[in-house]
Each structure stands twice: as C-alpha cells, then as structure tokens.
Amino acid sequence: MLGAIAGDIIGSVYEFNNIKTKDFPLFDEECFPTDDSVMTLAIAKALTEWKKGGDLEQLTIRYMHEIGRQYPDCGYGGHFGRWILLNDTEPYFSFGNGAAMRVSPVAYVARDLEEVKTLSRIVTGVTHNHPEGIKGAEATAVASWMALHGSSKEEIGDYVRENYYDLKFTLDEIRPYYTFDVTCQGSVPQAIQCFLESENYEDCIRNCISIGGDSDTIAAIAGAIAGAYYGIPEDIAMVADSYLDETLRGVLTEFEEAFYINER
Hints:
By secondary structure, the chain is an all-alpha fold. It has one domain (2-22, 32-258): Orthogonal Bundle (ADP-ribosylglycohydrolase fold), CATH 1.10.4080.10. The protein has helices spanning 2-11, 35-51, 56-68, 78-85, 98-101, 113-125, 131-148, 153-163, 171-174, 188-196, 201-210, 215-230, 234-242, 246-258. Helix 2 (35-51) crosses helix 14 (246-258) and helix 7 runs antiparallel to helix 8 (153-163). It starts with a helix and ends in a 6-residue tail after the last helix.
C-alpha cells in the first residue's frame, strides 16, 4: 500500500507535465500526495474499522467522505468530487482509474484470492460500479495480492492475461504515442506492464513516468504491485512518508499495526 502512495507522490508533478524518459529526480520539491493517496488511506481506514466489526460498504462510504473532505484540493475528478462534497452515497457507474488507484489495501487484508476479489468489489462498487471499473480495481488487487504471496512475475502476468487484459504490448511500443487516459481500460493494463517490465521498485516507478499519461495514478497502481513484490527501499519509504501530514500518517500507521504490515 505504501508502494501506491510513494508512486502517487512521485508521479504528482508529471500528471499534467508528462515526460517520456526514465531519467528524472525521483522526488521533486513540488511533489504532494494526491487524491490517489488520500483515497487509498480512506480504504485503509475502512478496512481497519471493518476488522473491529461492521459493514465494509458503509464504512468505505463513511471514510471516503470523512477523510476526503479534509483534502478538497487534492485533485478529485469531477464526478467523484461531487460525490465527496455532496455526501452522496450512490454509485455513479464510473469506469475511471480511481477504482484501481485506491484498492491496494485489500491485498494486505484478504486471506485468499477469492476474498481479495470480494473485498475489491465491495470497496470499488460504492462509486465505480461499471464492469470496467470493477475489473480494473480487481486486476490491481489480485496482482498485488499475488505479488505479496510469492507469485512470480510470469504467474502474475499470465493470470492478468487470462482473466483481465491481454497486455499485447511493450512499454517501448506505446511510449511514443501513449497519452492521458483516466479510464481503467486505458491505464490499468499499462500500469501492470510497467511492473512486469521492471527490475525493482524504483525502476517500476520510472517506467510509469516514462510512458506519460495519468502519471500519478499509473505510478500508484503499478507501485502497489511493485511494493508488494519487491518491497520498498527504505530511503524511498522515508521520503514518501515525510510528505504525509499527521492525519494521513496516522491512518497508515493504524492500518499497518492492525494487520501486522511492514512494507519498509
């Protein structure tokens, strides 16, 4: 999960300023945690409270609203921003990549592959109940869970191809023409490929930034999988953590303690 947050923070300055290279400073003084990090932590908070008892769907709605409203300027999309601010509780048939960027905490909670799918669908369906939104989040959660539980890259890639996306491209092939795309179907496959072609966590994030597009979200999605697979270098984890304020850091710590997680 911290892998998603670090990826988001690193990618935050490139979302509307794409670069097509892997050669860039990993952290910039203008970096910040966007809605990707905020909503990832809202899901983490919901899961932490769910462990104590309660309805996960309602807890997800509650904490997405409560935490989300504390960060009104972190970059929400139009529909989601209205959902947060108007206290809406109904899904709006979205297939935006926000479904996938926030789902990674379920990989650390689920006991098996079927449970990760179930939890993913619950926390996603409160807003992104379009089949493509459900699929994008589930593919990310499943890949993260498999990475966390010892699957090889080949096994993860094969499972994604058989069940979600064909991935019939390489990063070098798409880099020249890939552009901004906020749909799950237009960014989740690319993010997964960034992980599959990576050598380590940092290389995965550099892959993400190098293809352009919705950089922070692609890096959050791929970073979630890479963090689960490789672990996160201590220096990257420490710098990413320093960008979180006391509230967000508290949610992260509470989640890690509740589920005995050490990503650093």
